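Ops channel
N.P.: pipeline sanity check, posting one input/output pair.
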C-alpha cells in the first residue's frame, strides 16, 4: 500500500512538472536596469516586489510571474498583480484581505476608487499632496505606470545598441528599427512566449539560448560570471539567513550560558558571521564598489564590524558575555532596517559618491566607528544593569566600554577628516557646517568629553556608562536622523520615509531605562 502511495505521489509531481515551464534559464538573460547590466532575475524580483509586494504570488517564481504578464491573450486590465499593503488604501476601498492581489478591472469597478481617481487627476499637477490617503493612492497609480511600462516593453532594455556609448534598446525601440538585425531578437522573444503558452520546455530553452547568444554577441563586454553570482546572491539571501542565525545565537547563548554546551552559540555566531561576510563580498563583486552606498548597506556593514569586534574581544569562555552583547548589538542594528527606508536592492551609487577610493576610506571608516560606538552603548546598558546587583560591577565591562569609545572616537575623527578632504575635492570646501557635519562634530566632542572626564577622574564608572548611552543618542541623529528626518544638506543620499514616532519611542525607552536603573540603585541603599 505504501509503495502504491509513493508511486501515486511521484506521478502527481511529474504531472505538475510536465504542465509547467521551468523559467530558470531565462533568469540569466542580461537586461539593463537602473543603469546597470543585471540578470533578468534581479529585474523580475524588483518588479514583482514593487507592484505585488511579493504577496499572493502563491509560490510563483518572479521570472515566471513576469513572463506570464507578457501574454497578450490576457487583457491588460485583467491581470491580478496589484497588492494593497497600505492600511489607508484598504480603508478607503473597503478591503479587508491585505494579501490578495487585484487587477485594474477589480479596482476600477469600485466607486471609491473612481472618486479618488477623479480627485487625483484634478490635483496631481497642481500641488504636492501630503495627505496620507492621497499619498497611498499616488503610490498605487505609480504601480499602474510601472506595470504598463513593463507590459508594453518600455522598461525591458534587453537588446544591446550598436553604439557602445548608447543605452540598450527596449522593445518599442527595437520594433521601430525594422531591420533584419532587430527582428531576430523579437522573433526569439516571440518563440519564448509561444513556448510558455504551449508548455513546451524544449522550445522555451532553445529560445532562451538563442536570445542570450544574440545579446552576448552584440555586447561581448558582459561578464557572465558576475550575472551568475548575482542570481546566486538573489536566491541565497545571505543577510536574511545571518539575521535569523544571530537571533538563534542570542537565544542559545542565554539558555546555555553556564552549560558545557555554551560553544554552540559561538559556532552559530561564527556561522552567521560567515553568511554576512559572504553577502558583503558578493555585493562588492557584483557592484564593483565598497558595500556602503546606502542606508541598507551601512546597516549590514555595521553589523559585520560589530561581530568582528566582539570576536576580537572574545578569546576565552569567561568573556562569552562580551560576545553575546556583540550579537545583541548586531541584532538591534539589523532590526533597524524594518523601521528605516533601507532598500535591499543592488543599486548604483549616487553620482557624487562614485569614487571607490574615497568611499572606502571615508565611509567604511565612519560606519565602522558607528558600529563600535553602538557596541559600547550596549556594554553600557549591561553595566548599568549589573550596577543594580552589586556595588562594584565587574571592571572588565567598564574597561571594554572605555576601549570601545577610544577606538570608535579615533575612527570617527579620522573618518571625519577624510570626509573633509573628499568634500574639498568634490565640492571645493573642507567644512560647511551642514546638518550632517555639525551633528558628527557634536557627537565627536561628546565622546571626547567622556574620555577626558574619565581620564582626569571627574567622573566614576557609573557616570561613564550613563553618558555613553546619552552620547549614542546623539550619534543616531548623525547616523540616521539627518538623512531621514532633517532632509537637508549634501549628505542626504539615503532620504526616505520613516516615522518620527519610532525615534521618539526609542529616546523615551532609553530615558525610561536610565530612570529605572537609577531608582533601583537608590532603593538598594534605602
Amino acid at each position: 500500500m505504501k509503495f502504491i502511495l509513493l508511486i501515486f505521489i511521484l506521478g502527481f509531481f511529474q504531472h505538475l512538472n510536465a504542465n509547467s515551464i521551468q523559467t530558470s534559464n531565462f533568469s540569466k538573460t542580461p537586461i539593463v536596469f537602473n543603469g546597470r547590466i543585471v540578470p533578468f532575475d534581479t529585474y523580475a524580483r524588483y518588479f514583482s516586489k514593487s507592484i505585488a509586494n511579493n504577496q499572493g504570488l502563491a509560490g510563483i517564481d518572479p521570472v515566471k510571474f513576469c513572463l506570464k504578464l507578457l501574454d497578450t491573450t490576457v487583457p491588460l486590465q485583467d491581470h491580478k498583480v496589484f497588492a494593497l499593503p497600505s492600511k489607508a488604501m484598504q480603508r478607503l476601498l473597503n478591503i479587508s484581505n491585505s494579501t490578495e492581489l487585484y487587477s485594474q478591472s477589480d479596482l476600477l469597478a469600485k466607486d471609491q476608487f473612481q472618486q479618488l481617481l477623479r480627485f487625483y487627476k484634478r490635483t496631481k499637477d497642481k500641488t504636492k499632496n501630503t495627505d496620507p490617503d492621497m499619498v497611498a493612492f499616488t503610490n498605487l497609480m505609480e504601480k499602474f505606470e510601472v506595470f504598463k511600462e513593463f507590459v508594453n516593453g518600455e522598461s525591458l532594455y534587453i537588446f544591446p545598441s550598436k553604439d557602445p556609448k548608447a543605452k540598450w534598446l527596449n522593445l518599442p525601440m527595437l520594433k521601430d528599427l525594422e531591420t533584419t538585425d532587430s527582428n531576430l531578437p523579437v522573433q526569439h522573444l516571440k518563440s519564448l512566449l509561444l513556448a510558455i503558452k504551449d508548455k513546451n520546455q524544449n522550445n522555451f530553452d532553445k529560445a532562451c539560448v538563442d536570445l542570450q547568444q544574440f545579446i552576448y554577441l552584440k555586447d561581448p563586454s558582459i561578464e557572465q560570471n558576475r550575472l551568475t553570482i548575482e542570481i546566486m546572491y538573489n536566491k541565497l539571501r545571505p543577510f536574511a539567513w545571518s539575521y535569523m542565525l544571530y537571533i538563534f545565537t542570542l537565544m542559545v547563548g542565554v539558555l546555555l550560558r553556564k552549560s558545557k554546551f555554551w560553544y554552540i552559540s559561538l559556532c552559530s555566531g561564527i556561522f552567521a558571521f560567515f553568511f554576512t561576510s559572504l553577502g558583503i563580498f558578493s555585493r562588492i563583486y557584483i557592484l564593483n564598489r565598497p558595500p556602503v552606498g546606502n542606508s541598507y548597506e551601512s546597516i549590514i556593514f555595521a553589523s559585520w564590524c560589530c561581530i568582528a569586534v566582539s570576536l576580537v574581544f572574545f578569546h576565552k569562555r569567561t568573556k562569552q558575555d562580551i560576545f553575546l552583547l556583540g550579537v545583541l548589538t548586531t541584532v538591534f542594528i539589523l532590526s533597524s532596517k524594518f523601521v528605516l527606508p533601507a532598500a535591499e536592492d543592488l543599486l548604483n551609487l549616487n553620482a557624487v559618491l562614485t569614487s571607490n577610493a574615497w568611499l572606502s576610506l571615508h565611509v567604511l571608516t565612519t560606519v565602522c566607528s558607528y558600529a563600535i560606538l553602538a557596541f559600547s552603548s550596549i556594554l553600557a546598558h549591561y553595566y548599568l544593569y549589573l550596577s543594580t546587583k552589586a556595588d562594584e560591577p565587574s571592571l572588565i565591562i567598564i574597561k571594554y566600554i572605555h576601549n570601545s569609545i577610544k577606538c570608535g572616537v579615533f575612527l570617527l575623527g579620522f573618518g571625519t577628516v577624510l570626509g573633509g578632504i573628499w568634500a574639498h575635492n568634490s565640492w571645493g570646501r573642507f567644512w560647511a557646517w551642514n546638518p550632517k557635519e555639525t551633528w558628527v562634530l557634536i557627537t565627536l566632542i561628546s565622546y571626547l568629553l567622556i574620555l577626558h572626564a574619565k581620564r582626569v577622574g571627574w567622573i566614576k564608572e557609573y557616570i561613564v556608562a550613563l553618558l555613553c548611552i546619552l552620547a549614542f543618542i546623539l550619534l543616531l541623529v548623525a547616523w540616521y536622523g539627518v538623512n531621514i528626518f532633517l532632509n537637508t544638506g549634501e549628505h542626504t543620499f539615503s532620504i526616505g520615509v520613516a516615522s518620527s514616532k519610532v525615534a521618539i519611542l526609542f529616546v523615551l525607552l532609553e530615558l525610561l531605562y536610565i530612570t529605572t536603573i537609577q531608582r533601583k540603585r537608590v532603593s538598594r541603599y534605602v
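N.P.: looks fine end to end. Residues 369 and 408 are 4 Å apart (CA to CA).
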